[in-house]
Every structure is written in structure tokens, then in C-alpha cells.
Known about the structure:
The structure is a homodimer. By secondary structure, chain A is α/β, with parallel strands linked by helices. The model of chain A has no long low-confidence stretch (mean pLDDT 92). In chain A, the strands form three sheets. A six-stranded parallel beta sheet of chain A has the order 2-1-3-4-5-11, sandwiched between helices. The termini of chain A are far apart. Chain A has helices at residues 5-12, 16-24, 31-44, 50-57, 72-88, 104-114, 131-136, 161-175, 191-206, 223-237, 249-261, 279-282, 295-311, 334-337, and strands at residues 62-67, 92-97, 119-123, 142-145, 155-159, 180-185, 216-218, 242-246, 271-273, 290-292, 319-322, 325-327. Chain A is built from 14 helices and twelve strands. Chains A and B meet through helix 4, helix 5, strand 2, helix 6 and helix 10 of A and helix 4, helix 5, strand 2, helix 6 and helix 10 of B. Strand 2 (92-97) of chain A pairs antiparallel with strand 2 (92-97) of chain B.
Amino acid sequence: MPPSIDQVARRANVSISTVSRVVNRRNVVSEKTRHRVELAIKELGYQPNAFARGLMLRKSEMVGLVLPDLHGEFYSEIIRGANMQARQLGYSLVIASARDTDDAQSLLHGFHGRSIMDGLAIMVSEVTGGIQEVLGTFRLPFVVLDDDIDGADHDSVTIDQLGGARAMMRHLVETCRVSRVFFLGGLETNVDTIARLKAYRQVLGEHQVPFSASDIYHLDYRYETAWEFARQHVSEWVGERHCVFAANDEMASGVVDAAAAAGVKVPEDLAVVGFDDTRVARMTRPPLTTVRVPMAQMGAKAIELLCSRLADPAQPADQVSLQPELIVRESCGANVCGAG
Amino acid sequence: MPPSIDQVARRANVSISTVSRVVNRRNVVSEKTRHRVELAIKELGYQPNAFARGLMLRKSEMVGLVLPDLHGEFYSEIIRGANMQARQLGYSLVIASARDTDDAQSLLHGFHGRSIMDGLAIMVSEVTGGIQEVLGTFRLPFVVLDDDIDGADHDSVTIDQLGGARAMMRHLVETCRVSRVFFLGGLETNVDTIARLKAYRQVLGEHQVPFSASDIYHLDYRYETAWEFARQHVSEWVGERHCVFAANDEMASGVVDAAAAAGVKVPEDLAVVGFDDTRVARMTRPPLTTVRVPMAQMGAKAIELLCSRLADPAQPADQVSLQPELIVRESCGANVCGAG
DNA sequence: TTGTAAGCGTTATCAT
DNA sequence: ATGATAACGCTTACAA
């Protein structure tokens, strides 16, 4: 049984209020008694009971991060950013993620119920509807990540997917002066793929670069799938200033490796670009030109917003959009084409 | 202000003890009053205050996971496994990781101090000494991950690094019948590199395969470094039944890519194998033969041990060793050599 | 079966 | 500057 405040008080010959004052550095305590109390604290190894403290203060200095999944670099980077920011602000981070068996709703509900957290950062992107209602019943302050809910009046942090994809497409068209671009997306229902494809259509349209429905493919974001697919199609793709725009780095890497295996040189015979700037982008030869999605920053920003709301619950909802960054490496041939 | 137990009591015309009994399903409550209480609970949306509860029960149903870093697949997989197991057992997971500025000691100390957690799972592998003392002062139950502290009597879960590396080396020698193996390690001080190098020496010695100090290199576990290094040395490495044993998949992948760039065929001209079985092992062409380190399982096992100790604090310390698994793919040439 | 009341370890308000 | 004492919301003997 750890020592409690009144054991400290007894040992230092003071009242518990004085001990509390010393611990919390509130009010004034005379130099002499403070020393006595601090000595007693050290001798006993006293640490305030967090439950009792929370009961009085109604806060735990803990925030929760709810994610749909924990697989892969994307989520791990969000966690990393969130953790850093939380620590910086004096909070601890509690992770929650659905298991195979249970849906996001019950996860959220359960997590919210225990409610020892001061607030929640919730990622809803992959989640099937019904979230709005659950969020409506929330008593805890929360911020939403990667939100695509319009008109909601809660804090949120999103990433400008369209802007990032447009930056890439414009680089391809304006700097690399590509004559034809093949789009390699994830599933057609994926929100990110939709945004990236939209940019593809927009920018090619704006620059009168012709493309047809048969230039657009939908795979599943996986390296292996892209590799196999590229093995079969890479010979059709080869051409003067031709380029493959893959919707993520894994697929882009698969295409590059398949091209190499087929004797197709990247970027000379075929340019290839990716998206996300995950670790694999730098582990592909040639290194991938891609778009850096600030994942860690998104996690950090979410926690920052949340904690700032905890500090001032009345402030108006803050919707932050994070800007991706075009990363030009070698796979697009920008250096080779010499146009930039 | 959320409703408290006595608001429920008032509304249901019972005492607070009865409400408590209904909530905790302890003792017996008559069917009639139970219904009344449950109705009141639903109407008010009552949820027991976790702090008050913890104050009485002295537990929060939360466990902490302390990691030296959050970068990369290794830690993210540990978190994933730990999270899954924690949820399974009805616990929430709190993450803690040092930031650049602070050392593991202060991290542990701070994290332990807040002590709203019921117990801690602590990874100490990368940590500079002094941990033993800190651990000695712990009041919370804890389990240590990837422990190399001998004779300690706390719960721990480790990975049989030596066994895994020996399995790989034996595969190379016995199945692939290599005539020479180059070792590409991380820093000389890294505990994993040390274990893997030990296996290298042991197995080659046991099978009278000659090797010299100049066959052993120490890099830094990074793809880029290995790629650049291999670019300079790959021509020296080529040879009948020669093989590069890299201490992790990233470096192995770098070697493979550099070999390809130099026109050296893997595995025909030079076999290459890795370690860890991270995502990159399957994203290298040819896919890497490697050793799967059960990272998620380690996280899960740690939480399992911890919770089992929480349930029965008196049980003897449990030291679990997890077995890595040899994964034979194509980069070792086992299929080509036809010896297995 | 249900109610009363005594803690649990804090912080906060008020006297002194 | 310090000390009583009343919350905070809950669980749990013990009593009825």
C-alpha cells in the first residue's frame, strides 16, 4: 500500500492541507515547513493518488486516440506524432483500435464509456456510417481526423488530398512534360483514390493531355498486386514521356521492380511516381518521386487541437487542413528530361 | 456535469447501494427494482465515474506500454499486438515513448508516477544502463520486453535471437551449401547484431566453413547505407555459392538492389538473406529469405503476462522466450541450388 | 432484499 | 501561514 497524504502530514507534523499545498505549489508555504514536508515526501516516496486527484480535479491528463486499424506505417506515424505532442503538452496517450470482431461504433462507445480520458481524437475515414449519431451522444471533447463530414461543427484535421495530387499531376505535366499518364488506383470506393483520380482528370483536362478510361486501373494498394499487374502491362505502357501515377508508394514500387525485371528502364523508358512518401519510396531504385503526406503532423495537430479545446471549451471549432508536399526524386525523370 | 449515482438512486426511488449493486451485478436485487434502476440509468445516460471507482477498487483496467522509440515497423507491430491482447482482456493501452530530449529513466519515472495504470510493460533493449535501479523502486507490477538482464526475477518476454540466426545460418550452410558468407551487421554495440554475429561464427565454425574478420562488416541497419556500400563491394562478393547475410531486411534489400544495378543476379551470382521479415522482405525482387521475428506476438505476450500477474500477484516470475521462424523465399537460391 | 454509513485520498473553502 | 472540514462519486460492511 503506497503512502497517502496524511502519512506524509503526520511525519512532517503538519496538516494534510499543507502537504497538498506543497505538492501543488499553490498558495504560500513557509520555507521551513516546505522543507520538512519535502523531506517527508522523499523519505516515504510519496506520490499523489491519481484517482483521488482525478476525482477532485475532474481530469486525468490523458487523451485517447481512436484508430480504425493499427496496420502499417500510416497509423504508426499518426501514433508517433500524437504521442510526441501529447507528451509535450503533459498528457498521456491512450490508444484504441477496433479488433476484427467489433465495429467502430461499439469501440467508440466502449472507449467513451470508461471515460477516464479528458478527450478523444477520432479517425473515422475508413468507418462505415452511423458515426455521426455516436459522436452526437458524446460528453467528452473530441476532434476528428481525416474527416470528410461536411458542415460538422467540431474540431477536425484533414489532409488536402486533392491539392497534393494536383501538385503531382502538375509536376508531371508542366515539368516532366509527359504525353500520357496511366493511373493506378486502389479500390474505386477508397476516398483517397477518388481524390487522386479527380486530380488526374482535372489537371490532364486543364492541359489538354489526352487520356481515356482504359488508362485508369483499380487495384488494391498492394505491392504484390501491382508487381504482377505491371509484369503483364508494362510493355504497353512504355513510350516517349509516358508515366505511371500510382496512388501509393507500394504500388509504384511494384511497378518499378516489374519494369526492371522486364528490362524497362525507369525513368528513361517509363516514368513512375507514387504517393504518401512512406519508407518504401526511398527504398526503391530509382527512389520514387512522390507526395509526402504529413501523417505524424496530422496526429500531432489533432492532439494539439484537442488539448487546446480542453483548455478553453468555449472556443469556436477549428478545422485545420494540412498541406502535402511534392517530393521530387528520380523515378519521374525530371532530372533526365531536363525541363526543370 | 454527468449524472452521478445518487441522481439515479433518487430517480429510481432506491438507495445508492442498490444502484451500485445493479451496475456491478453483485448480490441479488429484486427483478422489480432492478428494472426501475436500469430504466433510470438509461434515461439519465448514467456512467459510473471512473475516478471514484478506481479510488475504491484501486485499479483502472489500464496498462502502460513503454517503448524507447516509436519509429518503424518494429515498434508499431509491438503496439498492435499489445493493443489487441489488452482489448481482449478488457484493458486499455497507454503508450509512452521517450522524446528526443529525455532519457528512458525520466520517462519511466514520470510515467510510473502518474500511476493511474494497473501495470507496465517495459521495453529496455536500446536503453543505456541504470534501468535496474529504477525498476527496483517500482511499486507497479511490470513485465520487461526483450530483456537481456540475467538473473532478474521479474516477468519477461524475449526473442530467441541467437536461435533464429542459427536457423538461418544452418539453412545457408546445410541446404544452400554456401561456400562463403559475408556478414553485414548493424552497429557493433547493438545487441541483436551481436547475437546474429555470434550465430554466424558458431555455425560456420561447426561446419568448417572458412571465414575471416574481413568478411564481417558493420553498418547502421539502413537501406541507403547498405545500398551504397554494396555498390562498392558487390563485385568482390560475387562467387560460387557465396552469400550475404544482412542483419536486417532493409540492408538486405539495399544489397539486392545494388546488385541488380551492377548486373549481379540474385541469387544466381550472389545469394542475399535478411532478418526480421518486415514488409520490405516481400517488397524486394527477388523476395527475401529471412527470419520472422514475432513482434506483434511479443507485444501480445507481454500484455498477457502482465494481466495474468495482475490477476495473481503472487505467482512466480514467468520468463517467456519466443521463437523466430525461418522464412525461405527466393533470395537465398534454395530453390535454384536444388539442394533442399 | 434494501438502506445506512464509513471510508478511499485528494483539493478547496473557510477559519484561525 | 496553517489547520479543520466538507466535498468529489463510488464500493462495501453492517444493519434492518
